[in-house]
Amino acid sequence: MPKERDLIERSRNGDAEAFSRLIGRYEDRIYRLAKSVCTGLPAEADDVYQDTFLTAFKKLKSFRGDSELGTWLYRIASNLCLMRRRKKIREPFVPLLDRAHDHDDAPAHQFRDWSPTPEEAANKKELALKVSGALAKLPMDYRLVLTLRDVEGLSAGETAKILKLSVPAVKSRLHRGRLFLRDEFERAFAAKGSKR
Fold first, then answer.
1. Domain check: are 73 and 138 in the same one?
2. C-alpha torsion 99→101→35→80, nearest 10
């Protein structure tokens, strides 16, 4: 397996296969970040994901290697999320809802059906909606820190480097973000309990 430094050099010289291999090493992480932070349409996460690697391809010659490539890519993706947020604030936006597609052509199960019961599926969907709703209410600055630390598992130092913050600022935003989410969940579940 070629070393990352070699792949970077080959990519700088126009080797598309080398760049494709670099992307392969980071695509899942960048997509998770985009999906967690850009909580609007799923298409927004796709756009940030694609724009991150397009920007990286264009600017790879300027990558000095002061940080790891992954840190540099996270920074690009974070900046793209922030720019989209600023743009969204400036212009009115009406979301189009994604339609779920049924896959009727899937083969029938030959063994016991381990899929969730309708009640389990409804509870799981309700929880997912509450989590994504709470994340969407979280201010972007906190959402970025929370995603990099809690979802991606980066250290406070790595997160600080990506977002160009001090480590204490990262810890403060992480703490406030977690408190915000806790309060949102407590309200959501208290409301559910009072309806019974």
1. no
2. -60
Cα–Cα distance for residue pair 136/131, rounded to 1 Å: 9
Query: Would you list the DSSP string of 115-179?
Result: SPPHHHHHHHHHHHHHHHHHHHHS-HHHHHHHIIIIIS---HHHHHHHHT--HHHHHHHHHHHHH
Q: From CA 114, how far away is CA 135, in angstroms rounded?
A: 30
Q: Quick check: is 131 in a domain?
A: yes
CA dihedral 154, 155, 156, 160 (to 10 degrees): -60
What is the C-alpha separation between 189 and 35, in angstroms, rounded? 24
**Residues 131-147: pLDDT tens digits?**
777 777 888 889 899 88
Which amino acid is present at 92?
P
In this structure, what CATH number is given to the domain that contains residue 52?
Answer: 1.10.1740.10
The answer to whether 67 and 155 have CB atoms below 8 angstroms apart is no
Model pTM? 0.60
Domain residues for 146?
A: 119-196
Does some domain include residue 97? Answer: no
